[in-house]
Write a structure and sequence with these properties.
Blueprint: H1 22-35, E1 40-47, E2 50-60, E3 63-64, E4 71-72, H2 77-90, H3 100-104, H4 115-119, H5 136-142, H6 157-171, H7 175-184, E5 202-203, E6 210-211, H8 220-223, E7 226-227, H9 229-238, H10 248-255, E8 269-270, E9 275-278, E10 283-291, E11 294-301, E12 306-312, H11 317-326, E13 345-346, E14 354-358, E15 361-367, E16 373-377, E17 380-382, E18 386-388, E19 392-396, E20 403-410, E21 418-421, E22 424-428
Helix pairs in contact: 1-11, 2-6, 2-7, 5-6
Protein backbone atom coordinates (compact mmCIF):
# COMPACT_ATOMS: atom_id res chain seq x y z
CA UNK A 1 0.00 0.00 0.00
CA UNK A 2 1.37 3.39 -0.92
CA UNK A 3 2.31 5.51 2.08
CA UNK A 4 3.18 8.89 0.52
CA UNK A 5 1.63 11.67 2.60
CA UNK A 6 -0.23 14.53 0.96
CA UNK A 7 1.53 17.87 1.19
CA UNK A 8 -0.71 20.80 1.95
CA UNK A 9 1.95 23.50 2.43
CA UNK A 10 3.05 23.80 -1.18
CA UNK A 11 2.80 27.27 -2.73
CA UNK A 12 1.47 27.46 -6.26
CA UNK A 13 2.19 30.10 -8.87
CA UNK A 14 -0.20 33.05 -8.85
CA UNK A 15 -0.61 35.70 -11.55
CA UNK A 16 1.76 38.54 -10.73
CA UNK A 17 1.07 42.07 -12.00
CA UNK A 18 3.85 43.60 -14.01
CA UNK A 19 5.20 40.51 -15.74
CA UNK A 20 6.69 41.87 -18.96
CA UNK A 21 4.79 39.60 -21.33
CA UNK A 22 1.34 40.18 -19.78
CA UNK A 23 0.24 43.03 -22.00
CA UNK A 24 1.60 41.35 -25.11
CA UNK A 25 -0.13 38.07 -24.27
CA UNK A 26 -3.37 39.93 -23.59
CA UNK A 27 -3.16 41.40 -27.09
CA UNK A 28 -1.98 38.27 -28.90
CA UNK A 29 -4.40 35.70 -27.47
CA UNK A 30 -7.74 37.29 -28.56
CA UNK A 31 -6.30 37.94 -32.03
CA UNK A 32 -5.21 34.32 -32.50
CA UNK A 33 -8.43 32.94 -30.98
CA UNK A 34 -10.48 34.97 -33.46
CA UNK A 35 -8.26 33.94 -36.38
CA UNK A 36 -8.77 30.25 -35.64
CA UNK A 37 -12.40 30.49 -34.48
CA UNK A 38 -11.63 29.27 -30.98
CA UNK A 39 -14.45 30.28 -28.59
CA UNK A 40 -12.24 30.57 -25.52
CA UNK A 41 -8.60 30.17 -24.54
CA UNK A 42 -6.17 30.62 -21.64
CA UNK A 43 -2.41 31.15 -21.63
CA UNK A 44 -0.29 30.94 -18.48
CA UNK A 45 3.46 31.60 -18.27
CA UNK A 46 5.84 31.18 -15.37
CA UNK A 47 9.14 32.95 -16.01
CA UNK A 48 11.80 34.61 -13.91
CA UNK A 49 10.09 33.60 -10.70
CA UNK A 50 6.84 35.29 -11.67
CA UNK A 51 3.63 34.02 -13.26
CA UNK A 52 1.05 35.61 -15.50
CA UNK A 53 -2.20 34.32 -16.96
CA UNK A 54 -4.55 35.75 -19.55
CA UNK A 55 -7.81 34.41 -20.95
CA UNK A 56 -10.28 35.34 -23.63
CA UNK A 57 -13.73 34.42 -24.93
CA UNK A 58 -16.22 32.02 -23.41
CA UNK A 59 -16.14 28.56 -21.93
CA UNK A 60 -19.36 27.45 -23.62
CA UNK A 61 -23.03 28.15 -23.06
CA UNK A 62 -22.41 31.85 -22.61
CA UNK A 63 -20.07 31.35 -19.63
CA UNK A 64 -16.99 33.60 -19.73
CA UNK A 65 -13.60 31.91 -19.89
CA UNK A 66 -12.17 32.64 -16.46
CA UNK A 67 -8.78 32.15 -14.87
CA UNK A 68 -10.23 29.20 -12.93
CA UNK A 69 -12.04 27.53 -15.85
CA UNK A 70 -11.00 23.92 -16.34
CA UNK A 71 -10.62 22.63 -19.89
CA UNK A 72 -10.41 18.92 -20.84
CA UNK A 73 -6.67 18.56 -21.54
CA UNK A 74 -6.76 15.18 -23.29
CA UNK A 75 -3.41 13.44 -23.46
CA UNK A 76 -1.63 15.92 -21.18
CA UNK A 77 -3.25 13.67 -18.58
CA UNK A 78 -0.44 11.25 -19.42
CA UNK A 79 2.07 13.67 -17.88
CA UNK A 80 0.18 13.41 -14.58
CA UNK A 81 -0.07 9.61 -14.84
CA UNK A 82 3.65 9.29 -15.59
CA UNK A 83 4.57 11.67 -12.78
CA UNK A 84 2.51 9.70 -10.25
CA UNK A 85 4.02 6.43 -11.48
CA UNK A 86 7.54 7.83 -11.11
CA UNK A 87 6.79 9.11 -7.61
CA UNK A 88 5.81 5.53 -6.79
CA UNK A 89 9.08 4.33 -8.36
CA UNK A 90 11.04 6.77 -6.19
CA UNK A 91 9.23 5.39 -3.12
CA UNK A 92 10.08 1.80 -4.08
CA UNK A 93 6.47 0.83 -4.78
CA UNK A 94 7.07 0.25 -8.50
CA UNK A 95 10.08 -0.75 -10.60
CA UNK A 96 10.65 0.58 -14.08
CA UNK A 97 11.94 -2.67 -15.57
CA UNK A 98 9.90 -5.26 -13.70
CA UNK A 99 7.41 -7.14 -15.93
CA UNK A 100 3.98 -5.68 -15.27
CA UNK A 101 2.49 -9.17 -15.06
CA UNK A 102 4.57 -9.79 -11.92
CA UNK A 103 3.25 -6.60 -10.30
CA UNK A 104 -0.35 -7.43 -11.21
CA UNK A 105 -0.03 -11.14 -10.48
CA UNK A 106 -1.11 -11.89 -14.05
CA UNK A 107 1.09 -14.42 -15.93
CA UNK A 108 -1.05 -13.90 -19.04
CA UNK A 109 0.62 -10.54 -19.70
CA UNK A 110 3.72 -10.46 -21.86
CA UNK A 111 6.95 -10.55 -19.84
CA UNK A 112 8.30 -7.89 -22.23
CA UNK A 113 5.86 -5.27 -20.93
CA UNK A 114 7.45 -2.97 -18.34
CA UNK A 115 6.53 0.39 -16.85
CA UNK A 116 9.47 2.01 -18.67
CA UNK A 117 8.11 0.84 -22.02
CA UNK A 118 4.55 1.84 -21.18
CA UNK A 119 5.52 5.38 -20.22
CA UNK A 120 7.82 5.88 -23.24
CA UNK A 121 5.37 4.40 -25.78
CA UNK A 122 7.82 1.64 -26.68
CA UNK A 123 5.60 -1.19 -25.40
CA UNK A 124 4.48 -2.25 -28.89
CA UNK A 125 0.83 -2.13 -27.79
CA UNK A 126 -1.72 -0.74 -30.27
CA UNK A 127 -3.01 2.78 -29.85
CA UNK A 128 -6.44 1.96 -28.44
CA UNK A 129 -8.40 -0.99 -27.06
CA UNK A 130 -10.61 -2.91 -29.48
CA UNK A 131 -13.36 -2.94 -26.83
CA UNK A 132 -13.02 0.13 -24.62
CA UNK A 133 -15.92 -1.08 -22.46
CA UNK A 134 -14.10 -4.29 -21.63
CA UNK A 135 -11.26 -5.22 -19.29
CA UNK A 136 -7.86 -3.56 -19.67
CA UNK A 137 -6.07 -6.81 -18.83
CA UNK A 138 -8.10 -8.73 -21.39
CA UNK A 139 -7.40 -6.10 -24.04
CA UNK A 140 -3.66 -6.25 -23.38
CA UNK A 141 -3.62 -10.05 -23.35
CA UNK A 142 -5.37 -10.26 -26.72
CA UNK A 143 -3.64 -7.27 -28.36
CA UNK A 144 -1.74 -7.73 -31.61
CA UNK A 145 1.55 -5.98 -30.96
CA UNK A 146 2.59 -3.47 -33.64
CA UNK A 147 6.29 -4.14 -32.96
CA UNK A 148 8.50 -6.07 -30.58
CA UNK A 149 8.42 -4.28 -27.18
CA UNK A 150 11.39 -1.98 -26.74
CA UNK A 151 12.25 -1.73 -30.44
CA UNK A 152 10.25 1.29 -31.66
CA UNK A 153 7.98 4.16 -30.66
CA UNK A 154 4.23 3.77 -31.15
CA UNK A 155 1.89 6.05 -29.24
CA UNK A 156 -0.46 3.96 -27.10
CA UNK A 157 -3.45 5.02 -25.00
CA UNK A 158 -3.87 1.35 -24.09
CA UNK A 159 -0.34 1.39 -22.66
CA UNK A 160 -1.29 4.25 -20.35
CA UNK A 161 -4.48 2.46 -19.32
CA UNK A 162 -2.21 -0.38 -18.18
CA UNK A 163 0.10 2.08 -16.38
CA UNK A 164 -2.99 3.39 -14.56
CA UNK A 165 -3.82 -0.17 -13.55
CA UNK A 166 -0.34 -0.50 -12.00
CA UNK A 167 -0.93 2.69 -10.00
CA UNK A 168 -4.23 1.29 -8.75
CA UNK A 169 -2.62 -2.02 -7.81
CA UNK A 170 0.14 -0.56 -5.62
CA UNK A 171 -1.87 2.29 -4.04
CA UNK A 172 -5.15 0.49 -3.43
CA UNK A 173 -6.91 3.55 -4.86
CA UNK A 174 -8.66 4.21 -8.12
CA UNK A 175 -6.55 6.08 -10.68
CA UNK A 176 -8.63 9.23 -10.07
CA UNK A 177 -8.13 9.01 -6.31
CA UNK A 178 -4.41 8.37 -6.70
CA UNK A 179 -3.69 11.23 -9.10
CA UNK A 180 -5.72 13.59 -6.90
CA UNK A 181 -4.12 12.65 -3.57
CA UNK A 182 -0.53 12.04 -4.70
CA UNK A 183 -0.13 14.87 -7.21
CA UNK A 184 -2.95 17.36 -7.70
CA UNK A 185 -3.95 18.27 -4.15
CA UNK A 186 -0.32 18.69 -3.01
CA UNK A 187 -0.14 21.31 -5.77
CA UNK A 188 -3.39 22.89 -4.53
CA UNK A 189 -5.07 21.86 -7.77
CA UNK A 190 -8.70 20.91 -7.27
CA UNK A 191 -9.23 17.66 -9.22
CA UNK A 192 -11.52 18.10 -12.22
CA UNK A 193 -12.22 15.46 -14.85
CA UNK A 194 -13.92 15.48 -18.24
CA UNK A 195 -17.24 14.57 -16.63
CA UNK A 196 -17.00 17.08 -13.75
CA UNK A 197 -19.66 19.82 -13.64
CA UNK A 198 -18.61 23.20 -14.99
CA UNK A 199 -15.71 22.21 -17.25
CA UNK A 200 -15.34 24.14 -20.49
CA UNK A 201 -17.29 22.85 -23.48
CA UNK A 202 -15.31 21.75 -26.53
CA UNK A 203 -16.33 23.00 -29.97
CA UNK A 204 -15.99 21.62 -33.49
CA UNK A 205 -14.60 23.60 -36.40
CA UNK A 206 -17.91 23.69 -38.26
CA UNK A 207 -19.25 26.92 -36.87
CA UNK A 208 -18.34 26.16 -33.27
CA UNK A 209 -20.82 23.31 -32.72
CA UNK A 210 -20.53 22.24 -29.02
CA UNK A 211 -19.27 18.72 -28.40
CA UNK A 212 -19.84 16.36 -25.49
CA UNK A 213 -16.82 14.66 -23.98
CA UNK A 214 -16.69 10.93 -24.73
CA UNK A 215 -13.98 8.95 -22.96
CA UNK A 216 -14.29 5.31 -21.84
CA UNK A 217 -13.39 4.88 -18.15
CA UNK A 218 -10.62 2.44 -19.14
CA UNK A 219 -8.77 5.34 -20.76
CA UNK A 220 -8.99 7.73 -17.79
CA UNK A 221 -5.19 7.54 -17.19
CA UNK A 222 -4.65 8.53 -20.83
CA UNK A 223 -6.97 11.52 -21.08
CA UNK A 224 -9.49 12.24 -18.29
CA UNK A 225 -8.15 15.40 -16.62
CA UNK A 226 -9.64 18.89 -16.97
CA UNK A 227 -7.26 21.65 -15.90
CA UNK A 228 -6.78 25.37 -16.31
CA UNK A 229 -3.65 26.79 -17.94
CA UNK A 230 -2.57 27.89 -14.46
CA UNK A 231 -2.96 24.29 -13.23
CA UNK A 232 -0.84 23.08 -16.15
CA UNK A 233 1.93 25.52 -15.24
CA UNK A 234 1.85 24.19 -11.66
CA UNK A 235 2.15 20.64 -13.04
CA UNK A 236 5.02 21.72 -15.27
CA UNK A 237 6.89 23.33 -12.38
CA UNK A 238 6.98 19.96 -10.62
CA UNK A 239 9.39 18.94 -13.36
CA UNK A 240 11.66 21.86 -12.55
CA UNK A 241 11.99 20.73 -8.94
CA UNK A 242 9.23 22.98 -7.62
CA UNK A 243 7.74 22.32 -5.09
CA UNK A 244 10.07 19.43 -4.41
CA UNK A 245 7.82 16.45 -5.15
CA UNK A 246 10.31 14.97 -7.63
CA UNK A 247 13.87 14.21 -6.61
CA UNK A 248 16.68 14.93 -9.07
CA UNK A 249 17.24 11.29 -10.06
CA UNK A 250 13.56 10.62 -10.71
CA UNK A 251 13.18 13.83 -12.71
CA UNK A 252 16.23 12.90 -14.79
CA UNK A 253 14.70 9.50 -15.58
CA UNK A 254 11.45 11.19 -16.64
CA UNK A 255 13.15 13.71 -18.90
CA UNK A 256 15.91 11.68 -20.55
CA UNK A 257 15.04 10.65 -24.14
CA UNK A 258 14.54 6.89 -24.29
CA UNK A 259 16.61 4.94 -26.79
CA UNK A 260 14.56 3.92 -29.86
CA UNK A 261 11.69 6.20 -28.82
CA UNK A 262 11.65 8.18 -32.07
CA UNK A 263 8.27 9.95 -32.24
CA UNK A 264 8.45 10.99 -35.88
CA UNK A 265 6.35 14.09 -36.51
CA UNK A 266 5.30 14.51 -32.88
CA UNK A 267 8.55 15.60 -31.24
CA UNK A 268 12.32 15.13 -31.40
CA UNK A 269 12.42 12.49 -28.67
CA UNK A 270 10.41 10.98 -25.82
CA UNK A 271 11.16 10.40 -22.17
CA UNK A 272 8.98 8.70 -19.57
CA UNK A 273 5.74 10.60 -20.15
CA UNK A 274 7.18 13.78 -21.63
CA UNK A 275 8.03 14.67 -25.22
CA UNK A 276 11.33 16.38 -25.99
CA UNK A 277 11.45 19.27 -28.46
CA UNK A 278 14.76 20.67 -29.74
CA UNK A 279 18.29 19.40 -29.22
CA UNK A 280 20.96 19.27 -26.52
CA UNK A 281 21.69 23.01 -26.88
CA UNK A 282 18.10 23.92 -25.97
CA UNK A 283 15.23 21.59 -25.19
CA UNK A 284 11.59 22.07 -24.30
CA UNK A 285 9.82 19.23 -22.50
CA UNK A 286 6.07 18.89 -22.71
CA UNK A 287 2.97 17.29 -24.12
CA UNK A 288 0.01 18.15 -26.35
CA UNK A 289 -3.54 17.02 -25.71
CA UNK A 290 -6.80 17.00 -27.62
CA UNK A 291 -10.18 16.02 -26.20
CA UNK A 292 -13.54 16.39 -27.94
CA UNK A 293 -13.27 19.91 -29.37
CA UNK A 294 -10.36 21.06 -27.20
CA UNK A 295 -6.64 21.48 -27.81
CA UNK A 296 -4.14 22.04 -24.99
CA UNK A 297 -0.37 22.39 -24.85
CA UNK A 298 2.25 22.31 -22.07
CA UNK A 299 5.93 23.26 -22.48
CA UNK A 300 8.68 23.21 -19.86
CA UNK A 301 12.05 24.83 -20.52
CA UNK A 302 14.44 22.10 -19.38
CA UNK A 303 16.96 24.71 -18.26
CA UNK A 304 14.39 25.89 -15.72
CA UNK A 305 13.75 29.36 -17.13
CA UNK A 306 10.03 29.09 -17.84
CA UNK A 307 6.85 27.02 -18.17
CA UNK A 308 4.16 27.80 -20.75
CA UNK A 309 0.63 26.41 -21.08
CA UNK A 310 -2.24 26.98 -23.50
CA UNK A 311 -5.79 25.67 -23.21
CA UNK A 312 -8.34 26.16 -25.99
CA UNK A 313 -11.94 24.94 -26.18
CA UNK A 314 -12.12 24.79 -29.97
CA UNK A 315 -10.82 22.32 -32.54
CA UNK A 316 -8.77 25.15 -34.04
CA UNK A 317 -6.66 25.28 -30.89
CA UNK A 318 -3.85 23.31 -32.52
CA UNK A 319 -3.49 26.00 -35.19
CA UNK A 320 -3.68 28.67 -32.49
CA UNK A 321 -0.79 26.96 -30.68
CA UNK A 322 1.23 26.77 -33.90
CA UNK A 323 0.91 30.53 -34.37
CA UNK A 324 1.54 31.28 -30.70
CA UNK A 325 4.70 29.15 -30.74
CA UNK A 326 5.93 31.20 -33.69
CA UNK A 327 5.55 34.40 -31.65
CA UNK A 328 7.34 33.22 -28.50
CA UNK A 329 10.54 35.24 -29.13
CA UNK A 330 8.46 38.40 -29.54
CA UNK A 331 6.87 37.57 -26.17
CA UNK A 332 10.29 37.35 -24.56
CA UNK A 333 10.27 33.53 -24.40
CA UNK A 334 12.65 30.97 -25.94
CA UNK A 335 11.85 29.80 -29.49
CA UNK A 336 10.04 26.52 -30.06
CA UNK A 337 10.58 24.26 -33.01
CA UNK A 338 10.68 20.60 -33.98
CA UNK A 339 13.82 19.66 -35.87
CA UNK A 340 12.94 18.87 -39.48
CA UNK A 341 15.06 17.40 -42.24
CA UNK A 342 15.03 18.79 -45.77
CA UNK A 343 13.66 16.37 -48.33
CA UNK A 344 12.39 16.39 -51.92
CA UNK A 345 9.01 15.08 -53.14
CA UNK A 346 9.14 11.89 -55.20
CA UNK A 347 6.50 10.01 -57.22
CA UNK A 348 4.42 7.68 -55.09
CA UNK A 349 5.75 4.11 -55.64
CA UNK A 350 3.00 1.64 -56.53
CA UNK A 351 4.33 -0.82 -53.96
CA UNK A 352 3.55 1.53 -51.07
CA UNK A 353 -0.17 1.62 -51.79
CA UNK A 354 -2.06 -0.76 -49.53
CA UNK A 355 -3.61 -1.33 -46.14
CA UNK A 356 -1.91 -0.87 -42.78
CA UNK A 357 -3.25 -1.52 -39.29
CA UNK A 358 -2.64 -0.49 -35.69
CA UNK A 359 -5.01 -2.53 -33.53
CA UNK A 360 -8.56 -1.47 -34.37
CA UNK A 361 -7.42 1.47 -36.53
CA UNK A 362 -7.15 0.84 -40.26
CA UNK A 363 -5.14 3.03 -42.65
CA UNK A 364 -5.31 2.79 -46.43
CA UNK A 365 -2.88 4.50 -48.80
CA UNK A 366 -4.62 4.48 -52.16
CA UNK A 367 -4.63 6.25 -55.54
CA UNK A 368 -7.02 9.15 -55.97
CA UNK A 369 -9.02 10.28 -58.99
CA UNK A 370 -6.36 12.80 -60.06
CA UNK A 371 -3.62 10.18 -60.35
CA UNK A 372 -2.08 11.08 -57.00
CA UNK A 373 -2.54 9.48 -53.60
CA UNK A 374 -4.69 9.92 -50.51
CA UNK A 375 -4.85 8.60 -46.97
CA UNK A 376 -8.02 6.88 -45.74
CA UNK A 377 -8.28 6.49 -41.95
CA UNK A 378 -11.28 4.29 -41.22
CA UNK A 379 -13.31 6.16 -43.83
CA UNK A 380 -11.98 9.69 -43.22
CA UNK A 381 -10.14 10.70 -46.38
CA UNK A 382 -7.16 13.08 -46.39
CA UNK A 383 -6.32 14.13 -49.94
CA UNK A 384 -3.15 15.09 -51.79
CA UNK A 385 -0.73 12.72 -50.08
CA UNK A 386 2.79 13.73 -51.11
CA UNK A 387 5.69 11.36 -50.49
CA UNK A 388 9.24 12.58 -49.90
CA UNK A 389 12.63 10.97 -50.46
CA UNK A 390 13.22 10.46 -46.72
CA UNK A 391 10.02 8.40 -46.45
CA UNK A 392 7.92 11.16 -44.89
CA UNK A 393 4.65 12.34 -46.35
CA UNK A 394 2.17 15.20 -46.07
CA UNK A 395 -1.58 15.40 -46.70
CA UNK A 396 -3.84 18.38 -47.27
CA UNK A 397 -5.69 19.31 -44.10
CA UNK A 398 -9.38 19.57 -45.16
CA UNK A 399 -10.01 22.22 -42.49
CA UNK A 400 -7.18 24.62 -43.42
CA UNK A 401 -6.26 23.57 -46.96
CA UNK A 402 -2.58 23.45 -45.96
CA UNK A 403 -0.14 20.63 -46.67
CA UNK A 404 0.38 19.12 -43.23
CA UNK A 405 3.12 16.69 -42.10
CA UNK A 406 1.40 13.40 -41.36
CA UNK A 407 3.86 10.54 -41.06
CA UNK A 408 6.40 8.39 -42.84
CA UNK A 409 6.81 5.05 -44.54
CA UNK A 410 9.04 2.36 -43.04
CA UNK A 411 11.08 0.26 -45.46
CA UNK A 412 12.44 0.79 -48.96
CA UNK A 413 10.46 2.97 -51.41
CA UNK A 414 7.95 0.69 -53.08
CA UNK A 415 8.34 -1.98 -50.40
CA UNK A 416 6.98 -0.30 -47.28
CA UNK A 417 6.47 -2.66 -44.35
CA UNK A 418 4.71 -0.13 -42.11
CA UNK A 419 3.68 3.50 -41.79
CA UNK A 420 3.95 5.88 -38.86
CA UNK A 421 0.97 8.23 -38.64
CA UNK A 422 0.54 10.65 -35.76
CA UNK A 423 3.22 8.75 -33.86
CA UNK A 424 1.36 5.45 -34.27
CA UNK A 425 3.05 2.55 -36.01
CA UNK A 426 0.79 0.59 -38.37
CA UNK A 427 1.98 -2.63 -40.03
CA UNK A 428 1.10 -3.63 -43.55
CA UNK A 429 -1.75 -6.13 -43.62
Amino acid sequence: MHSRKERTDVPRPRPVPGVGSADRLAAVLPRLAARHRVPGAQVAVWSGGEAVMVQTGDAGGGRPMRESTRVPVGSITKVATATVAMLLVSDGDLELDQPVGEILGDPGLSASLTLRRLLSHTSGLPSDPADAAGSCRKEVRSAEFVCEPGTAFSYSNLGYALAGLLIEEVTGMSWREAVASILLRPLEIEPFFVDSPGVATGHARDGGRPLAQVLPPMLDPAGALALSARDLVALGRVHLGKPGLLDVVTASDLHRPVERAEPFGLADGWGLGLACFGDEDFRWLGHDGTADGTSCHLRIDQSGACVLALTANGAGGGDLWHDLAGELPELGLPPHRVQAAESCPIPMPDGDFGNYRNGAIGYAIRPDASGGACLDVDGDVFPELTRYADGSFTVRDPATGRATPCGRFRGRPGAATAVEIGGRLARRC
